[in-house]
Amino acid sequence: MKHAYVYYRIDPAQTSLVAPRIDALLDALARYCSQPPRRLRRCDDPSTWMEIYEGIADFSAFSAALDRAVLDLDCAGATVGERHLECFSAPDPAP
What we know:
The chain is α+β, with helices and mostly antiparallel strands. 31% of the residues lie in helices and 37% in strands. The protein has 2 helices and 4 strands. The chain has helices at residues 15-29, 59-72, and strands at residues 2-9, 38-42, 45-56, 80-89. Strand 2 and strand 3 form a beta hairpin. The mean pLDDT is 95.
């Protein structure tokens, strides 16, 4: 299983505009995850947000759905700068 982490900055003055879009994005992508996706904000910088998607079986399908949903929900237009997607997985068992 793979896990996706997306981080970006927002304009804090636009939180009430951005939050519903990101929450809709999380809802749209929940079917690709084994656990409900969630959003966090950085403790020392509330303008930096992160989306966490865990337990993704088909990362290619997830990534394509994420790209479509970001466009459909205008999530990129609600952020400052680019969204950064990172993929992680559990380490291979030790021999």
